[in-house]
């Protein structure tokens, strides 16, 4: 009974669990239903709400990955030089001066924050901030101007936020380390950019100050994308033509002036209403996009670069934010204040009030009232020196008994060619060759267009513009594409769809400029052709069979009409120079329109009824006058005979056949272009300079092949320089002079040995030749015996064997013939060498 009771309890418990699961599933299903359905159901009870709250609390939401960290633990200091790990006596003295200066500053200005003077470097060694700067001129012409340097630093490095947004960092790494790891904070960015600018000749300084939230977080969402701003189109003013003295009066205007004025007023009111709505919409968007109040406004620490006017023809002072690479005026409201700034020679403290941001600051570093400097005799003063006095002072001359700044303790920056080619962080490997920009709609989530810039692509793609509204894609190419593409506009890569393809006409033989294609038409524009063709338009009708990728070759679209236009040929008279010809294939007619003479207002026209050369009975059709309908501007001057019309019609038939063939070739070319573009988009191959020997595999293979050939040539030369008498001279006592009889014997033995080697080589080639011939004969005999029972696979193997055997027999035969031709020449050459060999001088006496 107890066992039965336990079994019943287990069954009841299982039923309760199953009922609970069904209730839970029903609650979940109710939550997933649409709102309209849930309105009709009963509300949730308190028990159901508690269960739902418990289940939701158990759900763990994954937190997005934080920004990449860049700490001393991630830096390998084993390969750093000794100057990074220790301080020289001069640097220790400089640190003592900096500590003394900091203490005096804290005593005189207790309400100011501590100075950023000697942070720790990678090796936990304190270094003066000015020694971290290393003026460097990059060996690339692209990195000579300030804008290209700033853009390179912004693209090449990855931004890492400050550990504490209210304090400067405790560590300041060298630009070499930042360059190797390609990441850093705002102080690392500014240090690297300032080093490059000073090396390029700019008067640049690193700034320690305060910035806005957007500036510190590199937030550009509220700024207008410069790539979406279209340049202003210059409107050319039309020159007014002076009225002639005798002109025909224009017809009287019978329109009501009152109605025109009312229409103008109505249009003005509509435009004013549209401007008002647009202005209200802009104000609403600006209010929606307005930044929220920042609780730390004015306290966020940020570093940027100050460039003073004077050097490199800089007209006025300006700031550079190293995060974005953008330049700003010193009056910009994003820069809220400056604590200090420094370059590779000195350190200055701002003693001016920053209540109005940086708008009222005067950047005269020679004024000790506004800028308190730390070191004397290390930099020129703008206030106390004129240009005449400044010309006789050298920056490198240190003033005696004054503390001078030591040289930079960091290594020089070196950007490898592999890094300068991409100019993007190593963590963004996908973006090695493209950049994407989006234009956001009024709601902030609607993507209107996408622009992607490319560099160093093998298919020469430069820009891809995608319009999300119309789904139109436009590809722009640089010169050098295999198909000479310049612009490709399309909505789908399927054939026979709407597309426009523009070409570089100088790279094409046929002079094609543009090709426009739809489902039923194809239009081509030409320039610079010897036949003066300028335009071709083909109309198609639907196919009977279904469309396929290779349908243009197997099942071309039926052509209904071909229209061609030509430029004026000055070598022909206007009444004989065709301006337009139309092939009406369905109606079997050909229409011609000639160019108009300068002294005429109409042009000649001619129409041919294209008939077959033979009728249904096989009789040859004769040209009749009704087969050509013409309109002559000067019928008395140019009367064409029937023979001329017959020859013209035969010529037009040939031209019609040629035009149809060219239209068919154009369809095939479009298919080839589409196939090539799909392969290029799938491959994404980058071009590598032939001078980049590390990454250019083709150049590397070619260089290795050349080195291998040179090595083989060297070995061949060494073999030819071997001593042919050494084996025979080894048989004689060393140092003994050869007698006449010994010289003759050595000569005969050397020649007989060489002759025997030539005979052995010939016999070896002959034996291999006979062996291959016998094996081929046996195989042929086997094939003759078993020819009936062989399968197709066996026949293919037999044919392949015969082909290879015949190739080997032919090669052996050529080698044997060549050996027979060269053997006597080699024998005579060796005999002559032996005769001229100084060691066998007795031979010369015999034949003297």
Describe it for me?
It is a single chain. With 848 residues, the chain is α+β, with helices and mostly antiparallel strands. It has 20 helices and 23 strands. The strands form three sheets. The chain has a 14-stranded antiparallel beta sheet with strand order 10-11-12-13-14-15-16-17-18-19-20-21-22-23, covered by helices on one side. Strands 6-5-4-3-7-8-9 form a seven-stranded antiparallel beta sheet. A two-stranded parallel ribbon has the order 1-2. A hairpin with a 4-residue loop joins strand 20 and strand 21. The termini are far apart. About 8% of the residues have low confidence.
Mean pLDDT: 80
Number of helical regions? 20
Q: Bin the strand percentage.
A: 15-25%
Approximate shape: extended
What's the topology here?
Layout: H1 2-32, H2 35-39, H3 46-57, H4 82-85, H5 89-108, H6 129-132, H7 146-156, E1 158-159, H8 175-181, E2 183-184, H9 186-199, E3 203-211, H10 213-216, H11 257-289, E4 301-308, E5 318-321, E6 326-329, E7 335-342, E8 347-350, E9 371-373, H12 387-390, H13 417-422, E10 434-440, E11 447-454, E12 461-467, E13 472-477, E14 485-490, E15 499-503, E16 512-517, E17 521-526, E18 533-540, H14 551-554, E19 559-566, E20 578-584, E21 589-594, E22 605-609, E23 628-631, H15 642-683, H16 697-720, H17 726-729, H18 740-785, H19 792-836, H20 841-846
Parallel strand pairs: 1-2
Antiparallel strand pairs: 3-4, 3-7, 4-5, 5-6, 7-8, 8-9, 10-11, 11-12, 12-13, 13-14, 14-15, 15-16, 16-17, 17-18, 18-19, 19-20, 20-21, 21-22, 22-23
